Amino acid sequence: MRKASISLLTLIFFLSSCQQIKQSYEETINPKPEQKDKPREQLGSSSSSSTTYSSSSSSSSHSSTVETGQKESESLFKSKDKLDQIQQELVNLPLFRGKKIMLYKSFFLYDHMDGMIIIQIQNPDKPDEVDEFTYRYGKWQEPTPVKITGNIPMESFLFPMDKIKFSLAHDIHEEMIKEAKNMEGGVASDHVYFTHMDFHGIERSYWYSSVKGDRKDLYIDFNTEGKEISRR
Fold first, then answer.
1. Which of 87, 177, 182, 223 has the CB geometry, 3.0–4.6 Å to 166, for a possible disulfide?
2. Whole-angstrom Cα distance, residue 179 to residue 90?
3. What is the rounded distance in angstroms from the CA atom of residue 203 to the CA atom of residue 131?
């Protein structure tokens, strides 16, 4: 009788272990997405932070209303004038006022909540240093230091701020929206990027963004004037 009880307990333990192993395997193969900060559309009535189109879609929305009664949140890319204003506010910061401003490597604009921009800039008073500036909650935040690594000279990644227009991000985003309408399940990215490198006489300075689709993805590069130069 005692042996039968021990055998029964052993069998139950074995079956329980197998179930745990199976569950762990399934969670590894098909992990559940983590619940991170919800974009504004999840708080309101829109479907996602990107704009999704079908063949019957006729127009896009540049704003999202929060159901909790909070004020309407506008797209960062809605107004060219607003983007120019944000850039001017950066230029007018005490550190940069009246000085030549040099972008370092790249920066991006992210259409989340009221918008976010992250850009790295050479310190005009300490040329060997680079700081990262973030535009969030409607204003530029305090800068944070950037660690410079690699063997490529810093000068290869410096690009004059006065040759960049933040407002071009509006035109690029609009172009991605148009492309999304022509793609099955097309979703225009909520990011627009600018990047620069000039190394051994090879210079690459361009904007880019993308569209995700059900059957293919599309990436488009634009020059500093906002004209398309390549797609892939």
1. 87
2. 31
3. 23
